[in-house]
User: Fold these one by one.
Assistant:
Number 1:
Amino acid sequence: MTWSATARGAQQPDNTAFTQQRLPAWQPLLSASIALPLFFCAGLAFIGLGLGLYYTSNSIKELEYDYTGSPDTGNCSACAEAGQDGAPPPNCSCALNFSLPELFQGPVYFYYELSNFYQNNRRYSVSCDNAQLSGFPSALRQPVNDCAPYQYGAAGLPIAPCGAIADSLFNDSFSLWHQRQPGEPYVEVPLDRTGIAWWTDNHVKFRNPPLVNGSLALAFSGTAAPPSWPRPVYELSPDPNNTGFVNQDFVVWMRTAALPTFRKLYARIRQGNYSAGLPRGDYRVHITYNYPVRAFHGRKLVVFSSISWMGGKNPFLGIAYLVVGSLCILTGFVMLVVYIRYQDQDDEDDSDD
Amino acid sequence: MDCSLVRTLVRRYCAGEENWVDSRTIYVGHREPPPGTEAYIPQRYPDNRIVSSKYTFWNFIPKNLFEQFRRIANFYFLIIFLVQLIIDTPTSPVTSGLPLFFVITVTAIKQGYEDWLRHKADSAMNQCPVHFIQHGKLVRKQSRKLRVGDIVMVKENETFPCDLIFLSSNRGDGTCHVTTASLDGESSHKTHYAVQDTKGFHTEEDIDGLHATIECEQPQPDLYRFVGRINVYSDLNDPVVRPLGSENLLLRGAKLKNTEKIFGVAIYTGMETKMALNYQSKSQKRSAVEKSMNVFLIVYLCILISKALINTVLKYVWQSEPFRDEPWYNQKTESERQRNLFLRAFTDFLAFMVLFNYIIPVSMYVTVEMQKFLGSYFITWDEDMFDEETGEGPVVNTSDLNEELGQVEYVFTDKTGTLTENNMEFKECCIEGHVYVPHVVCNGQVLPNASGIDMIDSSPGVSSREREELFFRALCLCHTVQVKDDEDSVDSPQKSPDSGKSCVYISSSPDEVALVEGVQRLGFTYLRLKDNYMEILNRDNDVERFELLEILSFDSVRRRMSVIVKSATGEIYLFCKGADSSIFPRVIEGKVDQIRSRVERNAAEGLRTLCVAYKRLTQEEYGGVCQLLQAAKVALQDREKKLAEAYEQIEKDLILLGATAVEDRLQEKAADTIEALQKAGIKVWVLTGDKMETAAATCYACRLFRRDTQLLELTTKKIEEQSLHDVLLELSKTVLHYSGSLTRDNFSGFSTDMQDYGLIIDGAALSLIMKPREDGSSSNYRELFLDICRSCSAVLCCRMAPLQKAQIVKLIKFSKEHPITLAIGDGANDVSMILEAHVGIGVIGKEGRQAARNSDYAVPKFKHLKKMLLVHGHFYYVRISELVQYFFYKNVCFIFPQFLYQFFCGFSQQTLYDTAYLTLYNISFTSLPILLYSLMEQHVSIDVLKRDPSLYRDIAKNALLRWRVFIYWTFLGVFDALVFFFGAYFVFENTTVTSNGQIFGNWTFGTLVFTVMVFTVTLKLALDTRYWTWINHFVIWGSLLFYVVFSLLWGGIIWPFLNYQRMYYVFIQMLSSGPAWLAIVLLVTVSLLPDVLKKVLCRQLRPTATERVQDMHPQPRGHSPLASPQGPHPPEVACRSWRGPGCPHSGHGSCLETPL
């Protein structure tokens, strides 16, 4: 690859601005006189933005409740203890209580959070079959090798949906109950379980295989459910538009998280009396405790959060903007001092000449 | 190179070891010699096929691939690619395979195309028809079928098909003229001589009857050396033995001129011809930048390996808990479980290597190659370096050294033809103390019949008149000048004698032409050489004929030449002409003192002087001379040495006639250029074969030495007085004492009170210094000598043999600071130093193109060196160092977040970025801006660089690639990577960033990091760019736009046939989130902030000279201390007297340099 220009300068070279390296050019100079105002302007703008972001973030409310096994908030520890070595006993249910002294301004979003769960592990995150999830019947019968060891079931039947991600689908379920006054009966808060997954995932990327005789179950015949699942994929939900691969819980789970502690959206609370938020009173979360986390030292949380234009509560951006803005102004001042002192020196030098 | 070795081995094997001999025997016309001659060893010779191509159709792919993967970088990427293919790695093999494939393919196509051109040229050459003699008939054959021993006929203007021994020509005197323009570039006609005993064979039948064998050495590449012997058998007598020399050899590639046809016998064919042997490649030179680049690469390789090791170790520490190694949700397959632990660890290590391998980017090599290749066109295009007179522009023979031009610390320059024009003009001659000045010159034409003698001294007496005429005859006869004939004037006897005055002389030495022309102006005209008779026209317009008996040709060791002629009256003269130092010791009679003083005076004025002497030979003496010469000429071994000895014996006891002086004008702006180079901190050494006084005068004229320079002499004369040891000690005491008192000050500029030292050393003294002494302490002298040289601002080495020039360069090159050296010269005697120096520059001059062909760069004039170094070199260095640093920086930014991510994904080699991003980051998102930057950047304008040579000091000693700078860039990269990664981490941590409450996954996280990175890295380059042409704007903003458009497209569609959907809508979703936008702005700003701060503060607090100039530039009223001494030189400086101090005044030539 040793290239060399062998062009002979036998004739007069072209006299163009390009060949003579004399193209007209803008020659900006990063000198103190330009940088100083820039620093002050940027600093002020950042501080302004940072204040805005900080207040926005502060106005967002967030409630987190660990239900892995903390005894004080509910009785979920019983389920957790029972399943010490592996899976908790089937259909273990428990409850988690909390009370709100004032209105939780809505709309409120209901998340679950897992910690110490490595969805971003490479072997885990590749362990699914995109073609299968796009509803290609051929892929349904022949899952890719990446899915191993969740590729073929014990009977040799192909697993649908195959792979570790699908197999480890989060299967705790929650319901929220509200008690206005002590002694009153608990009223179920309606949870909107739609719109929790990306629209494009739910409608474009994930597709059920074409129905056979109008039946989704027949379309999946000849496949096995993932080993950890109690029921096959076409029975994930009674709603025919929310079952199979396009089940929203499933789609949400399949978007692997970036970090080992992650939240996933479970439901939105925006119906009936609760569209403005959660009114004050006592609340109870009924939990079907299925998902084992003790085995990998993980924790499970439920999170209620309000949402602004910038999403959930995150003071980082606001603080970062404030810090960077003040740093800009500080360095601006330092530079100003240096600039003025240096300028004096320079003038002296000049007068020496 | 390898091939020739193999070929040699094969040939040896085929021919049998015992047949490998030092000489070859050739049967002319394949006729066996008569029985009874020496036993003949048959040898096999190659046919006359020329193969310059490297590949054939069949071996192209394997051979080219092999060649390419011999490069260490390509091999590294191949290994990475293979690892990716074999083991289960995080990234697809495509990510490294595609760029590698691209690089390999582009290179292969380019090399294949070049080879195809070579094939075409080869076959054209191999198939061109050749006439040769078979059984007394003329036969046409293809050139490639020619064999050793064939008798070939060549017509006028044809090139010789192989190396031939010249048997006969149609010219009666058995000579022919050839030009060797395609071999060494000399366009002058050279005369070759047919073998004495065969020059009578004029027809095909005659030549077929020739019965002879030739013994000669095996082929060797030296174009000017050949020894051989021909035995001509005739029926009656014993075989006649004749010596063969290079004058009998016609080389392949040369062209026959002025001769209708010649016959010759092929002795070297095909790849064994001297031309083919000379096409072997020169050794590769590598630039300092490339060396530091390789060092940085090794550092990065170590970083890469340690990163992979750290991650592997941590992975196994972390996994020691089984719930982490194999949690229930992510179980292993059976085969994975059973794999050996060490094997697993090793595969993991390899996988990490693959994951981080982008830190050594394949694209850097491509970009560097492209930058050098394309960038070198700016040199060839440069109008300022185009010479209108000769129509020559600069030539770039290698683009590997562009940036080295910006690093030069020592310039070694030849004097004649480089500093001076090599345009000789006869100034005066001195005959026995009387000075003659021809002055009738009008526009370079000599006015006919004007009496051109200006007697300065009293008119000579009668006896001296005789001497005077003898002197002129000597000048007329003692030379090797040819007369360029007009068409068919060779054999036209009716040519009027007067017409000889308009004839044009050709010679390989311009001095000789000047002398012959000068004598013409003094009344004696050399007409021609015909049938071994030299004809001259004397003052009375009578033709005198002298028989030319012998020529004792010139060589650089003897530094003289002689002719032996026989006058019409039968007297035999030996005329000898040469340098004063080689003539005076051999003189026994004549007015030595007067002539010597005149010679010294002339030399001090910068004139080139020659002395002329003669002696008369009796017939018996001549006989002895003939025998001596003949014996030496026939010798096969050590012929040169024997000839030299013979010459030594013949050229003695001479009678001194007089001396000549020829002026060689300085090249325009030579002084200006040298001054600029010195201001740029470059030490200029003049290496010349000339004598000390002449060379010193030239040095004064070109302001290498100034009036206040104290000259130190280290010459033979001085060493004769004291011992070398004492001289060296004394000099070093003078110099070092002084420089010790102001150690640092000599870098700060040229203060007037600083004492300049100039050293003059001659060849003999140098060889004494270089010669290892018996007690083995030679190195002491060398070190001492180097110390002295270092403290001198200028060094003049005179009386240098070509090899000594290379020795000097080598001495400096390997001295302890390892400075970068540049050698510039125009003649064949400079080739050795041009090849030796880091950068070799050839001046496309009058002495042929040999220097230009062997150089790395060729320029038409010495003055172009200024722009070459101060502008082009400076730019190339600044550009390529930014290119190298930036490439490492952007790949640290690229890979370090990947490394950090491993801590958050259980060391599972999960990639942070998508495959497409991994592949395209270096290829398309960030490649073009830096390539364009490295082609276009001008941190200061061309005019400023030219005006202010001291800016060159800012980049001296590889300043922009020092460890400090490298570490700064690397840490900047690490800082930026930390900002990208943890910025994105805290933005994404445990929360949603969209207004609809939905959650992003890992690919969005990676895409955010990647987006911030692409913007930061591109804007960092934008911050560094000082010269924004529309192309820079287009490429920088264009590549950012391209990134956005590509990402939108890549995520906007579910690509059919790619089972690949993880990026679907990821980028668009990210853009729909407000915090992502805010994070991009914040993180880009934070990443760029320290660099901006550093730039502003450094500029404010410790500005370099370059930065001062930049600050000044926008305001023309600038007040820099540097500005005042610059500007146009006052006229009295440009036209000041160029004579050195103490030089006696003389009547002419007080202004050598033409101010322009």
Number 2:
Amino acid sequence: MGWIGETVDSIKSIKIRQLLTQAVTLGMIVTSALIIWKAMMCVTGTESPVVVVLSGSMEPAFQRGDILFLRMTKDPIRTGEIVVFKIDGRDIPIVHRVIEVHERKTTGKVDVLTKGDNNDVDDIGLYADGQMWLHRHHIMGRAVGFLPYVGWVTIIMTEKPIIKYLLIGAMGLLVITSKD
Amino acid sequence: MHSFGYRANALLTFSVTALAFICAIASFSDKFSNQNPSAEIQILNINRFKKQSYGNDEVSLTLDISADLQSLFTWNTKQVFAFVAAEYETPKNSLNQVSLWDVIIPDKEHAKFRIQTSNKYRFIDQGHNLRGKEFNLTLHWHVMPKTGKMLADKIIMPGYSLPDAYK
């Protein structure tokens, strides 16, 4: 109870200059986080250098809540690679393994078929209507590394947005009421 | 400086940093493992070889696959995903790779095996180029760690070929 009284007192005694300084500090923190994210995009060559595994289609290797580190290079796509791709018109990236590759002699373009390790059938059912193959431009990156469990934070924040608001509210309160 | 908030924050930051460091070292330790996997594949029988109604060739074959992948397992290995693919060239395509069979190996005991099986996934060409076609069979493996960097490699076995006529 004393902690709440302390908080209310410190909000009452806020000076404008101190408030502005703290606002700028907060802005700097957010901006540096953004800079780091964009730098990672440059280094790894893909729009999303880190993805969270959302489904169980690659179990037991990747469980829901794991995070994957991605990289995209100009190397050709070959069977066995775990790729992250987006179907035209859908937002959610899918992480599956390439099981078939057909590369054209003349143009170098590839037809790719994917399948989740834990699924019984290949991904033809997931592709857009009439689409039989994936092409290079669908593929956002290859999975090169992996960390277990860390992605649960993101899943919880997406599926129960109230937790996101609570967290941001609490962080905001902490910043405002801290004396430095 | 000594409030609960500051202490909790310091503790959290330190534990996350320590965990990240441990994961990185665990992954790094994989570099020191000595790996020498071996494999052998034989085609026991061509079960079916025909041209589908829309013009693409399809083959069904029975393979005898024996492999020893035990040396790939380290303390940081969660599983090894192994698969066999056929690789060949056609007039239109410089490379075709078709996965025929795969297996998830959860631990070292299961990593040395011999299995006779027909192809799990359909071997269908883009076209009808498979008569008399020479192809490689490759055994690929993908080592998935408990944390960190994944490793993939393969053994290429050349010299297989399909019959000259449909069956």
Number 3:
Amino acid sequence: MGPKKGGQAGGNKAKVGKQTAQQNAAPEETDQDERLQAIVLSDSYQTRFQPLTLETPRCLLPLCNTPLLEYTFEFLALAGVSEVIVVCCAHADQIQEYIANSRWSNPSSPFTIETVLSPESVSVGDAMRDLDAKGLITSDFLLVSGDIVCNVPFDKVLADHRQRRAKDKNAIMTMVLREASPFHRTRARAESAIFVLDEQTNQCVHYEEIKTRKHMKQISLDPEIFNKHTDLAIRNDFIDCHIDICSPDVPALFTENFDYNHIRKDFVHGILTSDLLGKTIFAHIVTDNYAARVRSLQTYDAVSKDVISRWTYPITPDSNLLADQTFQYQRGHIYKEDGIVLARSCRINSCTVVGAGTAVDDGTVITGSVIGRRCKIGKNVSIRSAYIWDDVTIEDDAIIESAIIANGAVIGASSHVAPGAIVSYNVKIDANIIVDGNKRLTKYLGEEDKKVDTDAVGEDGDGYVYEDASEAEEDDDYEEIVNSSGLVYNMASLNASDTSFSTVSADQAHRKSRRRRVSTASNNTIASEDSDEESFLREAQASVERAVAENHDLDIAALELSTLRMAKNAQFHEVRAATIAALIGRISHLINSNTLKARAAVESVLNRWGPLFRRQVFDQADQIDFLLLIQRDCTRRMQGSSILLHAINCLYDQDILEEEAILTWWYQDPQRKEDADMVKVGELVPRWLDWLTTAEEESDSE
Amino acid sequence: MEFQAIILCGPGKGLEPLVSPLLPKALLPIANKPMLYYALEWCQRAGLSSVVVVCSSSAEQPISKYITLGYNSMQTSKSMKVEVVAHDGETGSLVKALKDKIKLDFILLPCDFITDLPPQTVVDVHRNQPLKTIGTGIWYKNSLDTMDKQTLKPDLTIHTPISNPHPQLLDIYPRPKANDQVHVRMSMLWEYPQATISTSLLESFIYVFSRKALDYDFGDGDAASIITVTSEKGGGGESLKWKKPWTSVVRDIARDSWRHAKSADRDTVGMYVVPQEHSFIRCKSVSAYLEANRLILKQSSYTLPPTTATANGAAIGRDSLVGIGTVMEEKTSVKRSIVGADCIFGRECRLSGCVVMDGVVLGDGVHLDNCIIGNGVIIEDKARLVGCTVEGRYVVREATQSKNEILRGYSAEGLLDTSDEYEDEADEESDEDEDEDDDDEVDDNDLVESEGEGIDVDDDDLFDRS
């Protein structure tokens, strides 16, 4: 119903536009103004949904049994868009096929749809540059990603934007922002930001991303903006779904500034801070309607719950967005399709969606969950707050809590899937297995060759533990992303409680902010030490990295470090930690970029920069501390064990490490074997120790 | 809820050369009545029973004289008790020092405001605030086009949106210098995700506060650590917290509302912005003073007292006000002006938009346009002044022609400053600098105190801060 109506409205509008155009004797321009293009970025350029997105693009992942892309198209139809361009990157074939077979390609579709391949793009910026090069954009357009759920009526937004554009050609962009509380569950933790807007005009004058991990204490505003704007609203309560109306200048600006990648972090920030461009960006604040973006597992969960509890009306499961869907609404937010087989004694509790062809056996309890089509759920299974997609088999007595089980997976009898776990396509989990909350299981291998992880999936299981290695190296916000992208926010650091996890996450965030506030304010002395230490580590590491990258003189680098140390009143331990982090980071970079082999990389870096440690490492205790630091650092690197081995060898040759210290560290220090990672990274050391002792014997015998 | 009023009378640096030790700012006439009268009258209308007038020790004598001989004798009912107290020091310490005298919730007022805003509105706003509001401050927007924007230089006021039912003050920053970044604390943004920074709000210095604010020690236990730490830096104990301008005290209370996560019922400072339909002027500069005179003139045009003394053919517009005992010769015309008592105007004088104080003597054919003429000034024949300010007892020579100048005698002060024209501006600037110092950071307050630029500076900090 929705799309058709939207289609008619859109069509009418276009007609009206033509009529008035003829009357006004300015035909082409008006006609063009009334048509609205939409660019849908089907790729998220992120890896948060991996391993699920290894096999399916994010926009085709089902949310309440309907692919995410449908919600986006539905929104575009309601918004009166007449031309949709879908930019495909990863899994382009799947997206193209899906669109070709969907009702949006029918002649009755409210808009024309076209897919554009942009296989090389790795960011929003690349996609925009590609679009600019292809010259597809003719007028102001709506830029959205393929994963939004939104029911905002768009006429007002568009009218406001056009009015501004008519007055000032430099108003190149309008961001649609939804007002909420700062701890709202659909506000992605990692991607929330502070907007500073002119109170009268809603012109955005400052954009600052909130960095949760770095304990951001304040935002800094340029005094210049106070001369231009009298009243500025600083808002920390927006949900930014990245729904933007852009003028054709926007892709052009991306082309001009080839280093812009992220639409907010780079583009908005860049435009706002540039005096030369003179372009302005405005915000449109939505207070009543719903808008959210599924950009992390945490928001996947939150948005699913919102859809089920009808915040997104008219976009709800029972509006049956797909032609073959037959959902019916029942009291207590239960949605059932036709052809479901429910045993007499099973219980379907409130806020649950069950797809067609699913069979639920005796004694099973399903609460607040989404179950796909054709699933087989056995006896006495307990499913709570979980997302189970199509064709999943769950055997008797299994327990599934707050997890995602993808198509075709099999959960063995009496197995337990803990909150936060992801079981990807076709993974088979044997009976009596416990899947930890932080595990992500997949069957997709790519080019790697791995054996089945029987530890994780059991003897008869099939699947591997997915490790997200690619990002760890490059992205220093890695930890933050992992923490905030999990289905269950920060579950690891939290004692699991019985409350539903959306409240847990909100609580947690709240507590976090509380803690942050306390640490910045009341516990002033302690907080300042903490932050001093932290900032020292960061600055010192940056200093060394700079020295290495720019090939400074060794003395200058050492001088800079010691100045920093004295300024921040830091301990030598921290100096060492910072230097190690920087140097091992460099080595690891050389190895990962295939510039040098492990040994050559270690030698090239340490022979040049190792002498730095002469001014940081003095007695034996220092040396042991130093070794532990290297060992710890190597645990998070690829080929960490060989880096460790060569580093020890190299530093021993330079007489920075003495034999005695190495031996004490290896044989006596309990911290060396603190955890599995530490042990693992040290696996190559015994060989070197053998060499050391034999060499000694030899020299003795001589 | 009963209130007590405290009226702070500053020396009025921005009004030089109109003010002098004999004529402190509080007694400077607006429409022929001392400024203080309007503040007192405002209190009377609010139905207050007791008012404390605080001034610097040098101004105590003339002000008490006015209260006993002038104000009290004018009042028909003696329902309001007025008391004069001399105090030198920061406004914050002053309020603290009055602790014994303040028995009720109190209203803090400057002596230099002119408004048509009914006092009841202000009191009601405070009464309707949520319980946790410890005080309410009044801010206003400059509605005068003639005001020099440079002299206003408002601070950055951070508050919750004014459209809220109960807008709240969150922080006050001094206006940043060219290259200073303005830092907004994240802790505030988590507590108050909608904050507004205003650069157009001016402090009225009218504050309605609960008496318990006097016991305010900036939280308790470790919550107070920020303040304690900074005061330790300053080298003082508890008393130091109050040894700073009152505005800083208010700011610290406001900051406390979000700085500590301790309890939900932290004290907050409410805000009220004078609505557009009301005028509000603080006479802190000469141009504001002129505007205030005009505003009163506008308000009271229907109650012009009958002009007592005129000569044949002198025309006094209905939009003007002339004091008792003033004599005007033939063909003199007065438009949109205020003339004090006992003046003698010669023939063919033209006055338009002027404020002329008492005992001024004009020769023949003097033309004055938008001028302020101090007490006892003598202007000789055919002088033409436009936009000038003339200090009391100055003698303007025959046929002088001046535009936008400040004419002042060679007093001791005058000798030091050779360039008369820039005097006013320079004063304003020094004003501003001091302000910035106090607001900068809490620990800077000590500096201001020890700057030791003589009584003048201290006094100025004392009352004129905003």
Number 4:
Amino acid sequence: MSGRGRRITDEEINELISKLQALLPAESRRRNAGRMSASKLLKETCSYIKSLHREVDDLSDRLAGLMTTMDSNSPQAEIIRGLLRS
Amino acid sequence: MVALRFLRALSLVRCSGPGARSPSYRARGIRRAAYACMAASAGPRRAWSRALLRKIRRRPGRGLRRPRAVIRRRRPVGGGDPLEVALRRLVPGGGCMEYCRLLEEAADYVKCLAMQVRLMQTIVDSASHVNSID
């Protein structure tokens, strides 16, 4: 499926650009008041995706560290185990 | 739905005893689980979720490999704009789709990624809070 077989209209692209802009974090929207150009939007989206990837990495590290506490038999570990079981 | 999947995946991570690994190995497993749960919850409707699941399931040593002749490879779209090329690299499966579709997929991917981050942050906050209760 390489294409829809029709020209993509400018309105469609603009609509997608607005939709994407709405998903960017608030600081990015404040910095770029009003409608962004397509290239600015691509740049902001790329940096946002990269920062989200970094957050997933960081949170994975933290979760892995927290789960070592589950090795112990402390009451805290039992609560965490309960959280994951439910 | 993605929360349940992810919690279940986390509970399978071995922390001690035979088979337990270093924290960095666990972190990689958790990271893989995060992307897998995200993609599985999004379903096969999205190109990015299909591409992510293909990539995760293709890990070396896991199951049978499909003979190369059967693997369909679409030619990636030639890049003009370096920003468009960058976005195609960041969105899973983004290499071969037309520009309009790429923007749609990127929007959905961003939404799901942000949700996954919020979910993981919530779990970390609850677990840390529980840890600090004394």
